[in-house]
Specification:
Layout lengths: L10 H9 L1 E4 L3 E6 L15 H4 L12 E2 L8 E7 L2 H12 L4 E8 L7 E5 L1 E7 L2 E7 L10 E9 L4 E7 L6 H8 L15 E2 L2 E2 L5 E9 L5 E5 L4 H9 L14 E2 L1
Parallel strand pairs: 4-13
Antiparallel strand pairs: 1-2, 2-4, 3-4, 5-10, 5-13, 6-9, 7-8, 9-10, 11-12, 13-14, 14-15
Length: 255
């Protein structure tokens, strides 16, 4: 008798999640999450990415599990562990801040400098059923120290393409840090971002997890990239923004 997963997936869902695989081996699974898909939980009654991982379940009922999350409207690289030892290994790596995450974002108001480091404590607040983060002075009770790096990759009269790297992993960290800098992310209504860009409507938060570097359970490190989605590229093109060329291939995994 074959194993039946507790989540029923349609053929289209199975095909879509399998098509999103960027890298896979015996220990890890890396996917390019589309915007609009929740990583886990959430109040929307639809299958999450964690649910969709049942598409990779084995006959013994074992299936991959996510080891970190992306916001619902953020696209890009997300990592899952295929075994319990791999999950433990990667969980410790995250706690030790050994994962390097690199994002791309669009902003209407470019940062004042071409690059820099933002160090601002963040305080979580609950407003109704929603959770928000707020930049506050160091030492504020309940606040967490937070640090992000930014670098402007391209500018135009319409805005800028910015590379972001969180050095800590707070909720909404990049979004709040950039808003505090005066450069909220396009499409980020929660934190003051423009809802149009270069004369076009921004349908969602313009934040993409482009690259991830992580220690591998078998030793060494792996670097993975996820292709920038079409909606992001369309707004870039409308604003006349061109990303610098990279020598390595998007979607490839390197040691």
């Amino acid at each position: 008798m074959s194993f039946q997963p507790p989540v029923t997936l349609s053929d289209a869902e199975i095909a879509a999640v399998r098509a999103s695989v960027v890298f896979e081996d015996a220990h890890v699974l890396v996917l390019n999450k589309p915007a609009g898909l929740s990583s886990q939980g959430g109040r929307i009654k639809a299958n999450t990415l964690d649910d969709l991982l049942w598409a990779f379940a084995r006959s013994n009922g074992k299936r991959p599990h996510l080891v970190h999350r992306l916001d619902r409207d953020t696209s890009g690289v997300i990592l899952a562990a295929k075994t319990k030892p791999a999950a433990g290994f990667l969980g410790k790596a995250i706690q030790s801040r050994k994962l390097t995450k690199t994002y791309l974002a669009l902003v209407e108001t470019p940062p004042p400098q071409d690059q820099g480091v933002i160090r601002r404590a963040l305080l979580r607040q609950e407003i109704g059923r929603e959770s928000y983060m707020r930049a506050v002075p160091d030492g504020t009770p309940g606040a967490q120290p937070s640090e992000s790096r930014y670098r402007v990759l391209a500018r135009s009269a319409q805005g800028a393409l910015v590379e972001l790297e969180p050095h800590t992993g707070r909720m909404h960290q990049l979004r709040v840090h950039m808003a505090d800098l005066g450069s909220p992310l396009v499409g980020d209504a929660r934190y003051g971002g423009a809802l149009t860009f270069a004369g076009r409507k921004a349908e969602r938060l313009m934040l993409h997890a482009a690259r991830l570097r992580f220690p591998h359970p078998e030793g060494g490190e792996r670097g993975v990239e996820a292709l920038v989605p079409d909606d992001f590229r369309t707004l870039m093109a409308a604003a006349g923004l061109v990303a610098p060329e990279r020598s390595d291939q998007a979607g490839a995994c390197s040691s």
